[in-house]
Amino acid sequence: MKLLRSFRRVAGWVPEWVKVAFLGGAALLLFFLGGIIIWAAVMPIPSINSFENRQVAESTKIYDRTGNVVLYDVHGSVRRTSVPLDAISPYIQQATIAIEDDTFYENAGFRPLSFARAAFVNITTGSYAQGGSTITQQVVKNALLNKSKTIPRKIEEIILALRLTRAYSKQQILNTYLNENPYGGTIYGIEEASQYFFGIDAKDVDIAQAAYLAALPQAPTYYSPYGNHRDALDRRKNLVLLKMEEQGYITEEEYQAAVDEAVEFKKALAAGIKAPHFVFFIREYLEEKYGADQVAAGGLRVITTLDYDLQQKMDEVVTKHGPGMYSNFNASNAGMVAIDPKTGQILAMVGSRDYFNDDIEGKVNVTIAERQPGSSFKPFVYATALKKGYTPETAVFNLQTQFSTACSPQDVANAEPPCYSPQNYDGKFSGPITFRDALAQSQNIPAVKVLYLAGIGESLKTAEDMGITTLREKPGFYGLTLVLGGGEVTLLDETSAYSVFANDGVRNPPTGILEVTDKNDRVLEKYESKPDRVLDAQIARQINSILSNNEARAPEFGAASPLYFPGADVADKTGTTNDFRDVWVLGYTPSISVGAWAGNNDNTPMVRRIAAFIIAPMWHDFMEYAIEKYPADSFPVASPDPSYDSLPPVLRGNWNTDPSKGLHDILYWINKDNPRSGFNVNPWADVQTIHWDYPVQLWAGGFAGGAGSTTPATGHGGMYAITSPGAGSVVPASSPIIVTISATNFQNISSVTYLLNGTPVGSSMVSPFTISFQPAVQGHAALQAIFQLRGGATEQTSIQFTIE
């Protein structure tokens, strides 16, 4: 009674407005709490069963061919591998509890004081930055709720945490927390974090490593060991260790040893991804076959074909040579790929000299980019010609030639469209040359002739059969430029196609997969050999013999070029585009095929040097290592051609087939579509014959040494002579020189070509075959006239005179 009277006396002293305010506040508080209770009872909260029954997304792991080296984890929003609690180091468990929730084993899933403190900070700052969450609350947040930071979501979190604590053991909750907690970027779960940062399983982590891992989740990006705040991470790691000691998890000696330990993190690039271009090449394949969701979160285990040791060597070589190629040749980028010819398995792939260099578009995989191959396409054309019946000893003339029938045969030097007169790289025209020497020395003009002989459509078919997938247009789209790189191919395709030569004509499609299993260890895909003979072994061996013949290539590249490997049988071919935007080297043994490319992703030209100078040294450096790791015997030798002795002479290297008929290029002697059938009875029916023969006749005049002759040529039913200027005469240099001829029968003459000191000065196809020209030289001069007679024969004569 006294207490009641005292309360009434005190209440009497309180102003009336305070009483009203107090009662109103109490009523509002009761109303608010009641509302919360009612709302909590009726609001739609995710069922606690969804925690137990949910499917935890697991990363798809991509491994090297041993299954031991993790190249990458393909992921969508998470990258996670779940492990049981007994597979997680006790140090990790203790460090996490010490820094995140030191009353974890005592609390009911919610700590009111911590929550109140965090709420006060959030209200006063308006930031919602403070969480105050227990480990159980964080499990709810990570597993059952969205990531929003609102009051209703926080209340949901608390209620579910209380329910969770009653439904599950602390061990289950801790295990879930450690398997789903974020540790930076897309790294989720302690097993992933242990592998990512230290390259070891979570069960093998020591005290100091555990402290680092426990320090990360509060602000994974800020505390990243690869970022700018390593000192802050070290301080937080030491705080974790201090709390572990204070809470009795470790001794003082263990604490000090862990503080002093110099923990080594894996390199940032290696930690995240190895062989990035290859990895994303594989990922694209997997997503196309299995779907992006399955790849991102299906827990696939992918064993690839990659030889990680070989990959490391390839990375090293490209990194080593890349800067020099840029500074010396303006080639900012390079790529390389290696394939096993016997299986088609991709052993190594480097898609740029620096994946992370955006200045060179380093993330673009140049091994699968379409680029012009230059002369590296030639072997497919020569192989097609060999299929058609030609031989490596077949002779053609390496002379400047006008190939366009829209232009005059005499216009040999005109390369402006619609004319087409390609050059050899060295600017030289050597006369007769065999297929073997022409391919080995990468001569352009003979290659164009070989394409015409082989057929554009047939050559495209050979390339397609061998693995070139990008030449989709009709033959007329490419024309004769095809053999010099007029189409676009990929480095991967060409390296695979060259492996057909290496494998005796048998193709194995390129693949990067050995095995794919799902998270239940069910095999979804397994490598199966799919050999397909696409080229006769005899032809493959003939190409191998040409491309591995160092003596044959020496006149162009030298005897000790980067294409040569003393004591090893290596076949190789370079390619340089006419505009110097791409350089290639492709080479192989029976055990490995390796292709390399250099250039600029923006297609700007390099310095005007051939591939042998720019990229061959890099390729050679890697190839030396590759052929040591994958040794091989010599290439099998092609069998002798049983009909060789009966072949037309030009197929046996005899370019002067029948001196009585004069000198001619190959179209004069054989039927190009059936070269072994014998003499061509109507050579002039082929529109290219006169175009090919014209420079041969010019060359034949100089070859015959006729500059000193003043005697008219006789034969083939007549006499042919130069009548003006007169032999031994002196003519003024200031006036045009008019050239006239005499002949027994002008009707027997098809055309006359004139050369002054070996240089063409004009021609005429109209009787009386007179020309005029302005002399560009003075002094002693030799004038030649080459008569092309109807029926194919030729005659030539010459005079000497003086120009003053």
UniProtKB/TrEMBL annotation:
Coiled coil: none annotated. It catalyses: Preferential cleavage: (Ac)2-L-Lys-D-Ala-|-D-Ala. Also transpeptidation of peptidyl-alanyl moieties that are N-acyl substituents of D-alanine; [GlcNAc-(1->4)-Mur2Ac(oyl-L-Ala-gamma-D-Glu-L-Lys-D-Ala-D-Ala)](n)-di-trans,octa-cis-undecaprenyl diphosphate + beta-D-GlcNAc-(1->4)-Mur2Ac(oyl-L-Ala-gamma-D-Glu-L-Lys-D-Ala-D-Ala)-di-trans,octa-cis-undecaprenyl diphosphate = [GlcNAc-(1->4)-Mur2Ac(oyl-L-Ala-gamma-D-Glu-L-Lys-D-Ala-D-Ala)](n+1)-di-trans,octa-cis-undecaprenyl diphosphate + di-trans,octa-cis-undecaprenyl diphosphate + H(+). Residues 335-590 form the Penicillin-binding protein transpeptidase domain. GO terms for molecular function: penicillin binding; peptidoglycan glycosyltransferase activity; serine-type D-Ala-D-Ala carboxypeptidase activity. Keywords: Carboxypeptidase, Cell membrane, Cell shape, Cell wall biogenesis/degradation, Glycosyltransferase, Hydrolase, Membrane, Multifunctional enzyme, Peptidoglycan synthesis, Protease, Transferase, Transmembrane, Transmembrane helix. InterPro entries: Beta-lactam/transpept-like, Glyco_trans_51, Glycosyltr_51/Transpeptidase, Ig-like_fold, Lysozyme-like_dom_sf, PBP_transglycosylase, PCN-bd_Tpept. Residues 76-244 form the Glycosyl transferase family domain. In the C-terminal section; belongs to the transpeptidase family. In the N-terminal section; belongs to the glycosyltransferase 51 family. This is Penicillin-binding protein, 1A family. It comes from Candidatus Giovannonibacteria bacterium GW2011_GWA2_53_7.
